[in-house]
C-alpha cells in the first residue's frame, strides 16, 4: 500500500522560473567564470545550493572551497533581492493531486535542496499551508546529508511512522531526485519533465516512470501492486 508521496518543490510542484539556478549562474559568472544555465542545471539541479555551486565549479576543474564559499555568499544576497519581486505559481494539477492523495489517506511531503528559509518563503508566496495543502516539509537544512543521500526521505518516513520504502513514492524533476528515491528504498521513483532535466537526462537515472504532468501519478498509484485499497 502506498502511504506517502514525496515531491520535490521547484520544477516539480511549483514554478519559480528557475530563479535559484539563474542566480547560481550569475553568481558564478560574476566571480569571473562563464557558465551556461544548462550547465548549472545539469550539474547542480536538486542539490543543496553550496554543493550545487561546488559541482558546477568541479565540472570546470575548479576545486577551491574559498571560491565556492564566496560565490555562495553572493548567491544568498542576490537570491534575497530576487525574491522580493518573484512570482511563484504551482505546477499544473499540483493542488488537485495533493487533494486526491490526502483524501486517500496518503501523506503528502515536500522536500527540497533549498534551505528551510527559502522553502518557507516560496510556500508563503503560493499560500500553501502545512496541514492543509501538504503534510510535511523536509529541507536540505534539516538533515545531515543531502541528495542523493536518502536522509530527507528517511526523516519524512520517521515522522509519519512509515518503516518500509515500498510504501513511498518519490517524484522529482532531476536525476538526483530519482537517485534519492532509489537510495531510500522507494519502490517507485518518478521523473517529471516540467523542470530541470529533460526526458533523456531523466532516463539516464533509470526512474520507474517518466511523466509530463503530476496527474499521471494518480494512475500509477492505482496500477501499482501496493496500491491503496
Automatic annotation (TrEMBL):
Q: Which domain of life is it from?
A: Bacteria
Q: Which InterPro entries does this chain map to?
A: HAD-like_hydrolase_sf, HAD-like_sf, HAD-SF_hydro_IA, HAD_2, HAD_sf, PGP-like_dom2, PhnX-like
Keyword Lipid metabolism part of the UniProt annotation: no
Query: Which keywords does this chain's UniProt record carry?
Result: Hydrolase
Q: Which GO terms describe its molecular function?
A: phosphoglycolate phosphatase activity
The yes or no answer to whether the keyword Hydrolase is present is: yes
Tell me which Gene Ontology terms the entry assigns under biological process: DNA repair
The record's GO CC annotations read: cytosol
Put simply, this protein is called Phosphonatase-like hydrolase
Q: Which organism is it from?
A: Chitinophaga skermanii
Amino acid at each position: 500500500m502506498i502511504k506517502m508521496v514525496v515531491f520535490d518543490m521547484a520544477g516539480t510542484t511549483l514554478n519559480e522560473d528557475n530563479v535559484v539556478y539563474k542566480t547560481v549562474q550569475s553568481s558564478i559568472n560574476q566571480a569571473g567564470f562563464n557558465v551556461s544555465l544548462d550547465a548549472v542545471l545539469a550539474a547542480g539541479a536538486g542539490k543543496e545550493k553550496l554543493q550545487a555551486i561546488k559541482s558546477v565549479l568541479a565540472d570546470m576543474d575548479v576545486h577551491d572551497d574559498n571560491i565556492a564559499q564566496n560565490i555562495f555568499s553572493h548567491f544568498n544576497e542576490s537570491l534575497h533581492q530576487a525574491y522580493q519581486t518573484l512570482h511563484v505559481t504551482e505546477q499544473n494539477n499540483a493542488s488537485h493531486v495533493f487533494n486526491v492523495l490526502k483524501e486517500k489517506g496518503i501523506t503528502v511531503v515536500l522536500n527540497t535542496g533549498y534551505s528551510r528559509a527559502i522553502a518557507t518563503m516560496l510556500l508563503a508566496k503560493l499560500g500553501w499551508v502545512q496541514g492543509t495543502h501538504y503534510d510535511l516539509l523536509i529541507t536540505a537544512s534539516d538533515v545531515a546529508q543531502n541528495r542523493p543521500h536518502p536522509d530527507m526521505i528517511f526523516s519524512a518516513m520517521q515522522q509519519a511512522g512509515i518503516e518500509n520504502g515500498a510504501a513511498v513514492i518519490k517524484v522529482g524533476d532531476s536525476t538526483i531526485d530519482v537517485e534519492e528515491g532509489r537510495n531510500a528504498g522507494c519502490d517507485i521513483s518518478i521523473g517529471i519533465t516540467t523542470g530541470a532535466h529533460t526526458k533523456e537526462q531523466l532516463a539516464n537515472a533509470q526512474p520507474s516512470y517518466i511523466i509530463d504532468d503530476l496527474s499521471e501519478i494518480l494512475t500509477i498509484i492505482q496500477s501499482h501492486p501496493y496500491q491503496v485499497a
